[in-house]
Design a protein that fits this description.
Elements lengths: L1 H12 L4 H24 L5 E2 H13 L8 E2 L2 E4 L1 H22 L7 E11 L2 E11 L12 H13 L3 E7 L2 E9 L4 E5 L14 H4 L4 E3 L2
Parallel strand pairs: 2-4
Antiparallel strand pairs: 1-3, 3-8, 4-5, 5-7, 6-7, 8-9
Helix pairs in contact: 1-2, 2-3, 2-4, 3-4, 4-5
């Protein structure tokens, strides 16, 4: 509730009209609802990273952006990470639609993620790359959506976010430390799960790789 109220206050302060507030706030609530719905449907309160991305992209772009834009190993996220990344993906997609012209001709979007070693632990590295028909201007001014992204990645997840404004578009890299809470369930070529064979009793005793909050 406190997060919803904070987002409502910030959305009000950055909206030019009641209609603008209603549209922006409803979209952010839907992003949170998508994440919560995925968690609710899971017996273990987990959400799949590829599915979360796909749902948030579809909410913003409709069918104009295909699921094949996202690729990486299968990652299962805990509740905290799911909510933070769900809002982050929503804000990134909204900015890409508004300022990047992603749905225009000669524009494109790709999202890739990998798990990399980080000293004695590991980190999730996620790259969001926009190819735009026209250059994206970096005025140095951060909108509420951009500040919300930073708060989720840096504040909520203790990660790092880097933005690179190129002539060809925007590249965003998010680096999130892996802790106990979310589980990497395997590696898929395009982030799509393959049918799994029934596990043997011995296989079920093996511990999985842990990632999360």
């Amino acid at each position: 509730i406190s997060r919803v109220m904070a987002i409502a206050r910030q959305t009000v302060s950055t909206s030019d009209s009641l209609e603008d507030f209603s549209t922006s706030f409803a979209a952010r609530l839907n992003a949170m609802a998508n994440a919560q719905d995925m968690l609710t449907r899971s017996h273990w309160q987990r959400a799949d990273l590829h599915e979360l991305l796909s749902r948030e992209l579809e909410q913003v772009f409709g069918r104009l952006i295909g699921q094949d834009k996202a690729s990486g190993p299968d990652i299962s996220l805990d509740e905290r990470t799911t909510q933070a990344l769900g809002l982050t993906f929503h804000e990134l997609a909204t900015n890409a639609l508004k300022y990047g012209g992603i749905t225009e001709e000669n524009a494109d979007l790709t999202i890739r993620w990998v798990v990399e070693p980080a000293g004695d632990s590991e980190k999730l590295v996620l790259d969001w790359e926009e190819t735009s028909a026209t250059p994206i201007d970096d005025s140095g001014k951060r909108s509420f959506g951009s500040r919300l992204i930073d708060a989720n990645i840096r504040g909520e997840l203790g990660g790092v976010i880097e933005r690179d404004f190129r002539k060809s578009g925007l590249a965003v890299r998010m680096i999130i430390p892996i802790r106990s809470g979310a589980i990497s369930t395997g590696r898929g070529g395009k982030g799509k799960r393959k049918p799994r064979k029934p596990k043997t009793a011995r296989a079920r005793t093996r511990a999985g790789q842990s990632v999360g909050s």
